[in-house]
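CORE FACILITY INTAKE
Project code: CF-77B
Contact: R.S. (postdoc)
Sample description: multi-component assembly, two entities in total
Requested service: structural model of the whole complex
Turnaround: standard
Below are the sequence entries exactly as provided by the requester. Do not edit them.
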Amino acid sequence: MRVSEEDVLDLLTAAAMTISVADAAAVLLLGEADRLVLSARRGLPDDFPPGEIPLDREALSGRPVGASAADRPDVPFPTGFSFLLCVPLTVAAHPLGVLRVYRQASPPFSPADAERLLALAAVGAAALQAAQGVAELERIEAAKSRFIHVVTHELRSPIAVAQSLVRSVVRGYAGSLTETQKDLFARISARLDFLERLVNDLLDLAASRAPELAEEECAVALNSSVGRAVLLLMPRAEEKGVNLVARPYSEELAVWGTEEGLDRIFVNLIENGIKYTPPGGTVTVTMGRDGDEVWVRVSDTGIGIPPEAMPHLFEEFYRAPNARALNAVGTGLGLTIVKELVERYRGRIEVKSQVGEGTTFIVTFPAAGPPTCGF
Amino acid sequence: MPDKILIVEDDPDMVTALRMPLEANGYEVYVAASGQEGLQKVKEINPDLIILDVMMETTTAGFQLSLQLRSPDPKSEYAPYRHIPILILTAIHTTTSLRFGPDEAYLPVDDFVDKPIDPEVLLSKVRTLIEKSRAQK
């Protein structure tokens, strides 16, 4: 579960009031220029000035401070409140702010109250720091994804232009070519195809990591999604002499996700199967339901994955040594994208493989209700 | 008289890639490097087809041109050119979350060609669109 700073502050003020039997609580956090800023309050009147009071600095130095309205005319109290206890919010001797609790009537706060509140403040400060850290990491991750998105768009354009020019030349629109020239241009074209693919994969990866780039999710019909992937790859399988075997499932299964994301998962898995299966081999796609889960299995009779490659399979740019040796075109991003997407849709991916015999990928998702899109 | 094609594209290399197969097939090619210049040339040349890059200097330039040309206002200065078929160039990969299609209302265009350009696909779409618009006249 994702807990925000706001959630932590909310819980902290509520817990502080309960354990110190107080009528109100407030948290002030250190902001810019070392100033304390009111960040949460509970049970305090709206007109109570939220700023720093003399007790806060004492508390920030690391110890609980108490006061009564009668003894400390220099400390502002909200109307109707008589006692105040202020403790530091500290993580590893680093102050984040202060936690204050107020009582309207006697008894005043006791040293035992201070001990309890101090203990709560320690836990609260740690939770607060963790929530702030998560928010910061998310900001960094989103910035990274945006950067990749922009860069890949900038990269894609010149590649497309270069490829368009080469294609026109290869087809003879710039005059006839010698056999050697044709061969050289074909090689340039193959390199450009690879580069285009790499950039597209990077963009997909960035998209799968940046939630703001994603489409809204719906219950995607599994038969259609797998069907589209099979249809798209059938020509490639036929061209290579690999049997691609897939049949729709007897039931209309659905997975909560986006059509493009799910299509991409199945395209990548089936494409890999075809790529790493020698001519005459078979790639089989099956699906089914198991309780409240649905699964899709892509099995091939290909080269298999060596055991030492298994732990790295989903790493960015990783390619198994026997996959590299095969000279098949691949960017090493396909399975990374699959895993990210599967996890985004709350699923899991398993792989079983035997070198020389074949590989099976199984993706499992929570079953969604009747399909609401893509059928 | 050869058919006239106006290419609205700000990348001169892409213009070359488009021009080569078109001229080899007898089309007369005109070029505009911006949406604004494109609108002007439409009036000057009255082309049989417009090839439009939607991702020019600003992403909206292509959209604006096609919207202006297809304005439903009968008093629009571009009303006489509303029938000209528009073929858009797009580099938007089908697997990303953005999708353009000839049947979708994002853009008032007639068909689209994916970048990188395949000359045979381009020529076949150009031929079909010009024939279709001729039949409608």
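Facility notes:
- The helical segments of chain B are 12-24, 35-45, 61-69, 119-136.
- The CA atoms of residues 23 and 83 of chain B lie 23 Å apart.
Invoice: internal transfer
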